[in-house]
Inverse folding.
């Protein structure tokens, strides 16, 4: 699951904020190097359990809805899983479902032959403990040894902004002498209701540390 792109994180109205505070926990990572002036960090993410679905054919909105339904009940698992800041949504169909808190960000790979969107599970979830989806189009996997350089920016997570900040980050990595995989990841951490100036967006490029 190394081919990943991140898209905008759309939350329930209960956790939305026009000022950017959505109450959703970030996937944990450690900082290897940072450049505060350019808003760039090199990060080493802890192992992540991902729940994913394809965006082929049905597109981003349909993929997001499938994953959102998964975290709000369309899954089979243990009912005693600890929940922090759960996301709630009506009309949950799975009889044995459990509510699972969302973790930012949402991963999306638009450049592979089969575009994929992924939600990150809370950090205490493991590959074996994560409830299996009831939707056959949704699957669970694990991402390990994921080290990236990330540049942060506000505004919209548009193609033009992604292209602009990809160039900024690529030049910084070249100047610093980092080896990269070439995989570009975009990240959105806020609700669509958040005002553009308060949004946190990122472009990430996977790097190899010596």
């Amino acid at each position: 699951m190394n081919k990943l792109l991140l898209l905008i994180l759309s939350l329930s109205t209960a956790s939305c904020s026009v000022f950017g505070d959505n109450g959703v926990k970030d996937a944990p990572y450690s900082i290897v190097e940072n450049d505060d002036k350019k808003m760039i960090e090199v990060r080493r993410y802890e192992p992540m359990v991902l729940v994913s679905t394809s965006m082929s054919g049905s597109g981003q909105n349909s993929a997001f809805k499938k994953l959102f339904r998964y975290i709000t009940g369309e899954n089979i698992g243990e009912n005693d899983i600890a929940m922090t800041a759960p996301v709630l949504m009506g009309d949950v169909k799975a009889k044995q479902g459990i509510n699972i808190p969302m973790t930012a960000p949402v991963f999306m790979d638009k450049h592979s032959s089969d575009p994929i969107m992924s939600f990150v599970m809370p950090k205490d979830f493991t590959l074996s403990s994560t409830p299996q989806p009831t939707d056959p189009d949704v699957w669970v996997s694990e991402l390990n040894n994921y080290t990236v350089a990330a540049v942060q920016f506000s505004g919209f997570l548009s193609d033009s902004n992604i292209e602009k900040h990809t160039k900024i980050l690529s030049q910084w990595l070249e100047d610093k002498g980092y080896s990269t995989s070439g995989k570009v990841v975009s990240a959105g951490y806020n609700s669509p209701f958040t005002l553009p100036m308060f949004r946190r967006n990122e472009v990430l490029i996977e790097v190899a540390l010596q």
